[in-house]
Design a protein that fits this description.
Rossmann fold, two-stranded antiparallel ribbon, 8-stranded mixed sheet, 9 helices, alpha/beta
């Protein structure tokens, strides 16, 4: 009998968020444990605001394809809750219910998502709370969104059909370990530095992260026009380089582990990453 794989679920607000915040770490997990780890990449929103040139339906389809291509580089499964950008706060119940269905299907051992102290945009902060909320609800057998919605569907014209998530009463699920990425560019909305629980040395996978980000071709021109960022991939590399200097490596990604109840308190991600885990002041 083959050994059950460890399941890692990374949840981002938009296509390319997962790569930007966790891409090097996910690639590191595949580098270290290709046959032991299964990675799932899930975005809550569909990227509809990510273009000055394309209309919503077009950019939605484009970003779906880009995210699929990126996930394929590390043999990850990709999906989306298909909520429109900047409408997440309005659709938070729908997003949570879809997430509950995904969590019950995947049964992740650990989850990576945005920090609730993100200073970049509202969707990131709302996504953080929705993820922690959905994780809690998913473990409750009596939590059944179908009483409210009958059946939650995420409609995916880009696939030529729709995907339905049916909710049936299930046994209690154990809560996974929950991790938050570093707020970009390293401090919260009040410009307070966030001291991470640990950092991950991604020097050996920084090129894999770059390749994943490069798959999101539509975002280069958009970020240059809308955010005056002439090279967002270089921005990501410089950010990771600054983090690496904190622990004496070339490139690093930072994480905070949710240490409050009821989330699992085992250092699951740290255990998988081994010597790649670094702590400030220990080098």
């Amino acid at each position: 009998m083959s050994e059950a794989k460890t399941k890692v679920l990374a949840v981002g607000a938009h296509p390319d968020d997962i790569e930007f915040f966790f891409g090097g770490t996910l690639a590191k997990l595949k580098e270290l444990h290709r046959k032991r780890v299964q990675i799932y990449m899930l975005t809550i929103c569909n990227g509809t605001m990510g273009s000055e040139e394309l209309e919503c339906a077009q950019i939605r389809q484009t970003r779906w394809k880009e995210a699929q291509e990126s996930a394929a580089l590390i043999d990850a499964h990709y999906d989306t809750c298909d909520i429109w950008d900047l409408e997440l706060d309005l659709d938070r119940h729908k997003a949570k219910d879809i997430l509950v269905g995904q969590i019950r299907q995947i049964k992740p051992d650990m989850v990576l998502t945005h920090t609730p102290k993100d200073n970049y945009m509202p969707d990131h902060r709302v996504a953080s709370f929705i993820v922690s909320d959905a994780l809690f609800c998913a473990m409750l057998p009596n939590y059944n969104p179908s009483r409210r919605t009958n059946e939650i569907r995420t409609r995916r014209e880009i696939e030529g059909g729709s995907v339905g998530y049916r909710y049936e009463r299930t046994k209690s699920l154990p809560l996974p370990a929950l991790y938050y990425g570093d707020p970009f560019p390293g401090y919260d909305m009040f410009q307070e530095e966030q001291r991470p629980t640990f950092l991950v040395d991604i020097t050996s996978t920084i090129e894999a992260k770059r390749e994943m980000l490069l798959r999101h071709k539509s975002q280069g021109a958009w970020l240059k026009a809308g955010h005056r960022d002439s090279d967002y991939i270089r921005t990501a590399m410089e950010w990771n380089r600054r983090k690496g200097k904190l622990v004496g490596v070339e490139f690093a990604e930072a994480f905070l582990r949710h240490k409050g109840t009821p989330y699992n308190q085992e250092p699951r991600l740290e255990s998988l990453l081994g010597d790649s885990v670094k702590h400030i002041g220990s080098q």
